[in-house]
Amino acid sequence: MVELKELQATEELDKVWNESTEKPVLLFKHSTTCPISAGAFKEYNSFLDSAEDNLNGYMVKVIESRDASNEIADKTNIKHESPQIFLIKDKEVLWNTSHSKITVDSIKDALKQA
């Protein structure tokens, strides 16, 4: 099981990027007002509940922590969407997807490629 940690400040993103050199990081952008995001977040949590502790899991609430959410788009050069998930390793985004493509199986497949 992987503990899910919430990011709220832009300064915390540097820590996440540095952690990605030690083990992969999954970073989820979540809209708390969107039913599609709620479904994707459920998939993400299901994955984390069954995952081995060989990665770190994070979440950013896009409305409540807008600055951190915007910083992710700037840092990755990937257009903002929500829900959206990133797999980061060695300070690089290896995979990202959004909306209904965020599933337990899609996350597992992405990690196999890492």
Major beta sheet summary: 5 strands, mixed
H/E series, N to C? Answer: EHEHEHEEH
Number of strands: 5
- Average pLDDT reading: 95
Strand content: 25-35%
The best one-word shape is: globular
What does this protein look like?
By secondary structure, this protein is α/β, with parallel strands linked by helices. Helices cover 40% and strands 25% of the residues. It is built from four helices and five strands; from the N terminus they run βαβαβαββα. The protein has helices at 11-19, 35-50, 66-76, 104-113, and strands spanning 4-7, 25-30, 56-61, 84-89, 92-98. Strands 1-3-2-4-5 form a five-stranded mixed sheet, with helices on both faces. Helix 2 crosses helix 4. It starts with a strand and ends with a helix.
How are the secondary structure elements laid out?
Blueprint lengths: L3 E4 L3 H9 L5 E6 L4 H16 L5 E6 L4 H11 L7 E6 L2 E7 L5 H10 L1
Parallel strand pairs: 1-3, 2-3
Antiparallel strand pairs: 2-4, 4-5
Helix pairs in contact: 2-4
Characteristics of this structure?
single chain; 114 residues; alpha/beta
Could you write a compact summary of the structure shown?
By secondary structure, the chain is an alpha/beta fold. Helix content is 40%, strand content 25%.
